[in-house]
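tl;dr need the bound structure. longer version: we got a ligand (tryptophanyl-5'AMP) that a collaborator sent over and nobodys looked at where it sits. i said id run it. heres the input, straight from their email, havent touched it
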Amino acid sequence: MTNPATDSGAPIAQPAPKKEDGTVEESSHEQVVTPWEVQGAQVDGKLVAIDYNKLIEQFGTRRIDEPLLERLERLTGRKPHPFLRRGLFFSHRDLTQLLDRYEKGKPFYLYTGRGPSSGSMHVGHMVPFIFCKWLQDVFQCPLVIQLTDDEKFLFKQELKMADALKYSLENAKDIMAFGFDPEKTLIFSNLNYMNAGFYQNVVKIAKCITTSVSKATFGFNDSDNVGKVHFVSVQAAPSFSNSFPQIFGPKGDIPCLIPCAIDQDPYFRLTRDVANRLKYPKPALIHAMFFPALQGPGSKMSASNPNSAIYLTDTPAQIKNKINKYAFSGGAATLEEQRKFGGNPDVDVSFQYLRFFLEDDEELADIEAKYKSGEMLTGELKQRCIAVVSALVKDMQDRRKTLTQEIVDKFFNAGPRTPFAPAAPVQAST
Ligand code: TYM
């Protein structure tokens, strides 16, 4: 149940029930969604898909509904992105209020991030960045991207500082390859960037969050290092515009919109509570569903299991092999049964990947109908998925190769930038 006075709602740390020996109860448990763990519920030993309606209720967010999509289209003059049309960005906080401001010609900026846990991002990480690129094009707004190499250093016991920094640079280049406008985009590594405005906000935020709130929200215990307990202050700081005085000035009066998958919401629930106390505008959020791991629904693609993920560095042969070998199929047990009863696209990982990345709405609907009716078999579906994902990854690799040192420096340059004038709304809403 959400506390109406704050955004905090229920603490997020709801680990799956454990047996006495510490292992997870196998037959049934509730779904778990935290910044570190995503697992669908288990009912009678069977893993089920993530229940996003339940998350909306539990986290106290708003559903993105048709009227909101229509308003977006009216205001921007652009058809909503396929991620919105297909319900993959499904929930928000205060997006309506942000659009009210935009309609009045008042500026906002975008804030997102990445925790560089490995040298390459995976295709699931592409989701918020593809969406940010679209939002930047549509709203012509500035974007700040935080690389939380400090977070990874603090949370991964074995990670060396030098490796955290190396991953940060490699991931930054992956991110630059999405085609953001370098004039309007700042990418920064926490370990390398902390100006006075930014650090002052980190400290102000830290003063508002007690150890017990951080522990309850993130599930820390007394053996966790103090850096973990404090880290939320660092991820919260870019939500306030005067953390970037060189871009937005010293007042801290410009709100931001944060696109991310819903696993990051706990950080921003606390941020929004703190914003009230510091008299800053609350950040608005827009939440994505999880791009599933190859092994199936009820999961998220995660960098920590190489066989669950397709990386932006994978070759076409690796992608083909991973999808053929590991992509969970919603098909029937035998060819005959598949022809007779059809497959289940809702749990079929290849279909879910197409739902994210196949641009053509008509083709997607056609595939869904044919797969459901048994006309299309799992093998054919996998072939289409392999083609789409391989093309996407190759495109990213090609664009990354074109990055020059000048462009890289431009994205990292924290110096003054062109003032960001908000794009005018296309049409006033009624
Ligand atoms: P990280 O590196 O875990 O994830 C980076 C972004 O990708 C999203 N994401 C996914 N989206 C869809 N499907 C998936 N399987 C999937 N896996 C990850 C995450 O929600 C995130 O948006 N602490 C953060 C870094 C961060 C950040 C932020 C993220 C700092 N500031 C502001 C979002 C917004 C992290 O480790 O993200």
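gonna send this back to them w/ a short note. The pocket of tryptophanyl-5'AMP is lined by residues 111-115, 124-125, 127-128, 146, 148, 151, 235, 258, 260-261, 263-264, 288, 290-291, 300-301 (CB under 6 Å).
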